[in-house]
From TrEMBL:
Reaction catalysed by this enzyme: D-fructose 6-phosphate + L-glutamine = D-glucosamine 6-phosphate + L-glutamate
Name of this chain's protein: Glutamine--fructose-6-phosphate aminotransferase [isomerizing]
UniProt keyword Repeat present: yes
Organism whose genome encodes this protein: uncultured Nocardioidaceae bacterium
MF-aspect GO terms: carbohydrate derivative binding; glutamine-fructose-6-phosphate transaminase (isomerizing) activity
Superkingdom, natural source: Bacteria
A single Gene Ontology CC term: cytosol
NCBIfam families: glmS, PRK00331.1
């Protein structure tokens, strides 16, 4: 939610900041703006709409050349996405400019206080009060760093703030609480941003900031303090991916590129996690075997696509370990007073590691003394930092707002966790675990096979351009796949889509079926507890009522043929691992249908990549 960038160095600040915003636009695209320090004044521009609008404005009315600046791309929370509410916001005398990501929860009281002191606010945002307060401190004699420290001690809520002072062109100051901020360490230049993608083309050396820290960057120095001004330190790290990973590589959309990266992402996520005999080693886990042996319940918490990965995980973890496993939406979790003990393992799944709902859920769990394990794709993000243990997925940066390779690698991490628990607790024989590990190893090939068949799915998507509603049915581990297929379609194609457990259909949803309604049916492999046959009965029932059945079934499953209007073949696999291949055509379908409908696939309306507000 909102992307922010700050730069001090020798290059054109406008160029660095705008390019940084381009790489952060996935975080929000309601409006964008920049503020630069030039000859003792703040200059800048800000425009409603996508970054392209700002680009156009800057091309028509260029800003002067400067080497210090900040920028913002917005996902609106307070106030409509118009020019006035766009960031940066300035103090009344234009001495400081501020960009903000998050929500200042006490802004109403602060605004009232400022208005009583004669300040006039021009926007409806919660952010503008920070610019006024900051400027008041600077005009009172504080330098920008001390002014930021003072400001932060007055704010409630979640925020990353980045500010410049017209009279102090050599520094940019930033602060964070419950919202992402990372520093890029360059040579003769430094950066701050919501995400390393903003400065990856300039440096891969980064500094991760802790909670409630203020950072001051100049061209040659990075200084970190706590909000009270006491010296502190960030954690230095090297980013293990480069600019090419943050570019589209000839694909029309990041999302499509990310779908096609999945075989590589799965391979990377398995790398180094087992020996030649299939024995798992999760060295990074930071939890001892005895702690894992004591776990008597697992609660998986997450949102959106990550939640669906958790639903798949439940089937695998319970089957392999016999540990009861609950899966709960993070925003519901803490409000129902969940039963958590020291022996509960809470698993938080988050691609971004910044989802506020998930973060609040793990804080609640830790307050109850449960151990928290994060499954996360973003090094240095808040959720793994605040967890007791972490399994990093190795998807590489996911930029498309719709999660694809993020989901895929979350599944891999969940399978690894389940198998590792089974190994530690001896609930499966070593050979059984090795067999599943072998099967996981073959998954990149299976996924590639699905990608090689993309044209079939694209043709289908084109033929369904006019569909008003699409249903998705699955059973067992295929049920969350159905939910995920429906979510992808909702968020990208903006058409009604629902996922159902196929067995539930006759309890109500079958009433939705009408002539020619497309229904995706994810068929479990034959042979498991009659699931396959029951699924086929379900398909017959909807077909008899006019549904157009799009059947996703494994190779050699001839029984489905008479009931499939369209048949998409997936490679054979066990029921538990089937989601890895089965989800791919659903991703391709949503991507292509949104494309033919003329939608922006990477930046769907009303959404943002990481939801850093509750
Ligand atoms: O970064 P996270 O994995 O915590 O994000 C969770 C959801 O917001 C995310 O999966 C969302 O549902 C995606 N847009 C789905 O494609």
């Amino acid at each position: 939610m909102c992307g922010i960038v700050g730069y001090v160095g020798e290059k054109s600040a406008e160029q660095v900041v705008v390019e940084g915003l381009r790489r952060l636009e996935y975080r929000g695209y309601d409006s964008a703006g920049v503020a630069l320090v030039h000859e003792g004044a703040i200059v800048g521009d800000k425009r409603a709409g996508k970054l392209a609008n700002l680009d156009k404005a800057l091309a028509e009315t260029p800003l002067p050349a400067t080497t210090t600046g900040i920028g913002h791309t917005r996902w609106a929370t307070h106030g409509a996405p118009n020019d006035v509410n766009a960031h940066p916001h300035r103090g009344p005398e234009s001495r400081v400019a501020v960009v903000h990501n998050g929500i200042i929860e006490n802004f109403v009281a602060l605004r009232k206080e400022l208005e009583q002191d004669g300040h006039t606010m021009v926007s409806e945002t919660d952010t503008e009060v920070t610019a006024h307060l900051l400027e008041r401190a600077v005009l009172g004699g504080a330098d920008l760093t001390s002014a930021m420290q003072q400001l932060c001690s007055r704010l409630d809520g979640a925020f990353t703030l980045v500010a410049v002072d017209a009279a102090d062109p050599a520094r940019v100051v930033a602060a964070r609480r419950n919202s992402p901020l990372v520093v890029g360490r360059g040579e003769g230049e430094n950066f701050v941003a919501s995400d390393v993608a903003a400065f990856i083309e300039h440096t891969r050396d980064a500094v991760e900031l802790g909670q409630d820290q203020v950072v001051t960057i100049t061209a040659d120095d990075i200084t970190v303090t706590d909000f009270d001004g006491s010296p502190s330190k960030g954690l230095e790290y090297h980013v293990d991916w480069d600019l090419s990973a943050a570019e589209k590589d000839g694909f029309d959309w990041f999302m499509r590129k990310e779908i096609f990266e999945q075989p590589r992402a799965v391979r990377d996520s398995l790398l180094g996690r087992h020996d030649d005999n299939g024995r798992l080693q999760l060295d990074e886990l930071r939890m001892s075997e005895s702690e894992l042996r004591n776990v008597d319940k697992i609660v998986i918490t997450a949102c959106g696509t990550a939640f669906y990965a958790g639903l798949v995980a439940k089937y695998a973890i319970e089957h392999w370990t016999r540990i009861p496993c609950e899966v709960e939406l993070a925003h519901e979790f803490r409000y129902r007073d969940p039963i958590l003990t020291r022996d509960t393992l809470v698993v938080a799944i988050s691609q971004s590691g910044e989802t506020a709902d998930t973060l609040m859920a793990i804080r609640h769990a830790r307050e109850q003394r449960s151990k928290v394990l994060a499954i996360c794709n973003t090094n240095g993000s808040t959720i793994p930092r605040e967890s007791d243990a972490v399994i990093y997925t190795h998807a590489g940066p996911e930029i498309g707002v719709a999660s694809t390779k993020g989901f895929m690698t979350q599944l891999i991490a969940c399978y690894l966790l389940g198998l590792y628990l089974a190994q530690v607790r001896d609930t499966k024989y070593a050979e059984e675990i090795a067999t599943v590990v072998d099967e996981l190893q073959s998954m990149p090939e299976n996924i590639q096979q699905m990608l090689d068949n993309a044209d079939q799915v694209y043709d289908l998507a084109r033929s369904l351009e006019g569909a008003r509603s699409v249903l998705f049915l699955g059973r067992h581990a295929g049920f969350p796949v159905a939910l995920e297929g429906a979510l992808k379609l909702k968020e990208l194609a903006y058409i009604h889509a629902e996922g159902f457990a196929a067995g539930e259909l006759k309890h109500g949803p079958i009433a939705l079926i009408e002539q020619d309604m497309p229904v995706f049916c994810i068929v479990p492999p034959p042979g498991r507890d009659f699931l396959h046959d029951k699924m086929i009965s379900g398909i017959q029932e909807i077909r008899a009522r006019g549904a157009r059945t799009i059947v996703v079934a494994e190779e050699g499953d001839d029984a489905v043929e008479p009931y499939a209007d369209v048949l998409i073949r997936i490679p054979r696999s066990s029921t538990l691992l089937q989601p890895l291949a089965a989800v791919v055509p659903l991703q391709l379908f949503a991507c292509e249908l949104a494309t033919v409908k003329g939608h922006d696939v990477d930046q769907p309306r009303n959404l943002a990549k990481s939801v850093t507000v509750e």
